[in-house]
Design goal:
Elements: H1 2-18, H2 27-34, E1 64-65, H3 67-77, H4 79-99, E2 105-121, E3 124-144, H5 148-214, H6 220-254, E4 264-265, H7 281-291, H8 293-314, E5 319-333, E6 340-352, H9 360-427, H10 432-466
Parallel strand pairs: 1-4
Antiparallel strand pairs: 2-3, 3-5, 5-6
Length: 478
């Protein structure tokens, strides 16, 4: 009995260890082969280094943070990356559980009972006390089941592939959101700079009109018109400051900081990233269909559903199993009655034939087939969605590229027109309305330029994401 106790203790220790680090069936190795622990590396910059940077310093030079640092911190701090990794861990554990069906199960039973018996007859009574000890070891091993376990393992493996693909998609989504938050702050900084410049120009115009009015060579109307334009410029600057504060809060939260944390982005990141990855739309559609993680997840779910059909159909077939047991029963009496010791051993080869289960397996098979049809339709839907995303992003990028060129020329023309209007106004040959119109045109052109830059960056990044292979290459400057 001592041997049985030690053996049971050993089995319990192995089970406790397996709940944490022990991986006898290699499910974690499967997961490690698909994705390294922690975060998925999007390119070489995240491979080999620490998974997450340390806390953000309390003081940053001018509060500035780089785009690469923003994305790395977002990947570490965003809960979506942790949720996706936890889902992969769950599916890896389920893969291990399905592989466990190939191994025997062993159960140990230990019991000790004390029994007291009193027999009374004709005024006489006799008492008999005994102690019964039972130790038993049972083993069951499914030897052959026509491939049902194999189908279950394949279903679990494909489900793990789907989870890893979804994790990759989640990481890329966090990447894109962080980059967009960074570019939103970059645009907000540009808008505020333009608003301050427009306010300065309008102040100069107002001061010139006021000086002319004071000298008696300008009318009151011109002064009031320039004063009104100056007040509107102040309002635009205040609103730009509010937009900047919102963009700063959004970026701070994205990297795990308080929204009160004031951040600024690098001015060098105003350079436009390259478009070397842009090919003809046919090549990009083909690339997306091959490597997009959402498509990979949908294909893996379809394969898992196909395997579940096989498992459900094979559940109607017989199986062969091996059963063995060894037991010891001892009974000690506290009387003259001799003690009893009994040892049992058994080995059996069993053929299990499912006959009738209330039509449960029938409906399980139907459900598996319906799940396959659902996964098949889902795959088709995802293929169409990915193709449409690539096509729309590619078309939008063509439009935004042309708009970018147009706004550059428009801003240059508006700036030159304003310089001429200011000179004419100071010389007394230009009207106030001419000056105000030139100022308004310049402000509108500057705003359109900023919007065009923001739209171009967002569209380019969306096109890169629609291909399913996004990384730091997609946000670097030229």
């Amino acid at each position: 009995m001592r041997r049985l106790v030690r053996f049971a203790a050993l089995l319990a220790a192995i089970a406790a260890t397996s709940a944490h680090a022990f991986d006898p069936l290699g499910s974690q190795r499967d997961l490690a082969g698909l994705a390294p622990p922690g975060l998925l590396p999007l390119d070489a910059e995240l491979v080999g280094g620490p998974a997450c940077p340390g806390p953000l310093p309390a003081a940053l030079p001018d509060g500035r943070i780089s785009l690469a640092e923003t994305i790395k911190r977002a990947l570490c701090q965003d809960p979506r990356t942790r949720q996706a990794w936890a889902e992969s861990q769950i599916q890896a554990a389920r893969l291990g559980a399905s592989r466990a069906d190939y191994l025997p199960t062993i159960n140990a039973t230990l019991s000790q009972a004390k029994v007291g018996q009193t027999v009374s007859q004709a005024g006489l009574s006799a008492r008999s006390d005994s102690t019964t000890r039972l130790s038993q070891l049972n083993m069951a091993w499914n030897l052959f089941d026509f491939g049902q376990r194999e189908a279950n393992v394949e279903s679990a493996r494909q489900t793990l592939l789907a989870a890893v693909a979804s994790q990759n998609l989640g990481v890329q989504t966090v990447f894109v959101d962080a980059a967009n938050a960074y570019f939103a702050l970059l645009s907000a900084q540009g808008e505020l700079a333009v608003a301050r410049e427009v306010e300065r120009i309008n102040l100069q115009s107002f001061m010139a009109a006021e000086a002319k009015h004071a000298a008696g060579i300008g009318d009151l109307t011109s002064k009031l018109q320039t004063q009104t334009a100056f007040a509107q410029a102040i309002l635009a600057r205040v609103r730009a400051e509010g937009t900047l504060a919102n963009a700063q809060g959004r970026l701070a939260v994205a990297i795990g900081e308080s929204p009160q944390r004031r951040l600024a982005v690098d001015a060098d990141d105003a350079r436009l990233p390259d478009t070397d990855f842009v090919r003809n739309v046919g090549e990009m559609l083909e690339t997306a269909q091959q490597v997009h993680p959402e498509l990979g997840a949908a294909r893996a779910r379809l394969a898992a559903a196909r395997a579940r059909i096989g498992a459900a159909e094979r559940a109607n077939l017989p199986s062969i199993s091996l059963a063995a047991s060894r037991g010891h029963t001892g009974r000690d009496f506290n009387s003259d009655q001799p003690d009893i010791a009994q040892r049992d051993r058994s080995v059996a080869l069993q053929l299990n034939v499912p006959v009738f289960d209330g039509f449960s397996r029938l409906y399980q098979t139907r459900a598996a087939r319906a799940e396959f049809e659902l996964a098949e339709a889902d795959l088709k839907s995802v293929e169409q969605k990915v193709a449409l995303e690539v096509w729309q992003a590619w078309q939008s990028l063509q439009t935004e590229t042309q708009a970018l060129d147009s706004t550059e020329k428009l801003l240059a023309y508006a700036t030159k027109s304003l310089e001429v209007a200011q000179g004419r106004f100071k010389a007394g040959v230009g009207s106030t309305l001419e000056l105000l119109e030139a100022q308004r045109a310049m402000a509108d052109a500057a705003q359109q330029r900023i919007n065009a830059l923001a739209n171009w960056r967002a569209t380019r990044l969306r096109l890169a994401a629609s291909l399913g292979r996004i990384g730091f290459w997609s946000v670097r400057g030229q």
